[in-house]
Amino acid sequence: MEQKIIIPSLNESERFHSLDALRGIAALVVVFWHWIGESWVVSNHNQPFNFTLWGKTFSIFGFTSARDFFIAFRIGGSSVIFFFVLSGFIFCYKYFDKITDKKTSFQDYCLARFTRLYPLVFITTISAVLLFYFVKDAVIDIYEITRSVLILSGFQFGKIKGASVVNIPAWSVGAELWAYLVFFGLCVLYRKHKSKLIFSIPIFLGILAINFYSSGFNVRYIPGFLGLDFVKVFVAFFIGVFLFWFYDFLKQNSKFKKIFSVFSLSLISIYLFYLYKGEGYYYLAPNYGNYYILLSVFFFPCVILLALNVGFLRKFLSLGIFRWLGNLSFSIYLWHYPLSVFLSYVHRHIDFNIESKKVILLYFVLLLIISHLSYYFFEVPVQKFLRNKYYKNKK
Question: Quick check: helix, strand or coil at residue 141?
Fold first, then answer.
């Protein structure tokens, strides 16, 4: 009998469409942060990006500058953490039973993740290298290119560096692959010990490492995934795993589901009010690792559970445009950096104001077009081709 081919994504009946929407929105937030927070990529100088409406300036949480607001609350980094909480939630839903029941082999598991992530990482890295070479006349170290192509961006290997400058967003893809491998290993351990507490090990070790860092022990000197950025996303991923089990519990207990929805809304409101009073962030600012832990443990889980459990919100986030945006989220995340490099070349020849709403709108429209073409005409076809090739050779 012919081996059934794994399809690139979940069946429509199996997907959390409201979570797709959140993933797409988070991707756009990261892109906007990189546009306003690292505008030097395009224009070689930073812009304040003031909040204006009909010619008048307004403030959000006391900030009149979008750039200062995003920096103060680390919106860009927080959005990446949010990605990982979502990823852990979805992976637990999709793979926990399959792995623990031995319905998915390690080879099939790795194939599914590799064919989903690597083709886009490879093409965006090569695009960025070509753009840097031909457009920005930059000299790119072979070490940097190698790290990006092999999805090792963010690893140290004796050099105290963060994300590779060739393809900056790709550092989180390497972290995600490590999280997938650890998740599979813990699922195998679960077969023997039958205790979900096993999955708390990365959370415990991650929080411990963050506190070491806060105490002056520089974990960034430790090679590999123990770099601080990796630690933060590992904690977020496995918090997402436990969040799925909690969601599953709420789904079977409708009374607690309603109570927790009210609690989540209250907690989010209190948290936002606390930030508005200028105390939330500034209290945690000296220890920003714990700021991300707070978001991972309390704020983001509440947002996710509200998106799943509140009927009108779930229906709204399940609209076609949000589902489309969710499909493009990975493409948006990886293509925005090469597009920014290209616009830096345009800016050298055509002077334009990167604060202009028209320029920002054009940037996002171009990014969505590129991401749409990439997802539907490159990523999905390549996934199908590679997976069909694998199973034909496996027979």
Answer: coil
Distance, in Å, from the CA atom of 259 to the CA atom of 262, rounded to the nearest integer, reads 5
- Which residues have CB under 8 Å from 79's CB, separation 6+? 26, 27, 29, 30, 33
Alpha helices, H only, 38-105? 40-43, 66-72, 75-100
- List, in sequence order, the alpha helices (H) in the chain: 17-37, 40-43, 66-72, 75-100, 106-134, 142-149, 171-193, 201-214, 228-252, 254-276, 280-284, 288-294, 300-309, 311-317, 320-349, 357-374, 380-394
Domains of the chain: total: 1
Q: Is residue 4 part of a domain?
A: no
Determine the pLDDT at residue 230.
77
Q: What is the pLDDT of residues 70-79, one digit of tens each?
A: 666 667 778 8
Asked whether 156 and 222 are in contact (CB, 8 A), the reply is yes
Region 367-389 average pLDDT? 95
Residue 151: which domain range?
12-394
The tokens of 245 are what? 């089990």
The predicted pLDDT at position 345 comes to 76
Please state at what angle helix 75-100 crosses helix 17-37, rounded to 10 degrees.
150
Residue 1 lies in a domain: no
Sign of torsion, CA 61 65 66 68?
negative
Confidence check: pLDDT of 38 > 60? no
Query: Is 206 a domain residue?
Result: yes
Which pLDDT value is given to residue 337? 87
Asked if residue 5 is part of any domain, the answer here is: no
- For residue 9, the one-letter residue type is S
- Dihedrals phi, psi of 215, to nearest 5 degrees: -90, 5
Prediction pTM value: 0.84
Distance (Å, rounded) from C-alpha 181 to C-alpha 190? 14
CA angle 176, 180, 186 (to 5 degrees): 140
pLDDT tens-digit series, residues 86-103 = 999 999 999 999 999 999
**Predicted confidence band of residue 252 (pLDDT cuts 50, 70, 90):** confident
8 Å CB contact between 22 and 317: yes
What is the phi/psi pair of residue 217, to 5°? -85, 115
Section 41-59 average pLDDT:
58
pLDDT average, residue stretch 277-286: 47
Mean predicted lDDT score pLDDT of the chain: 78
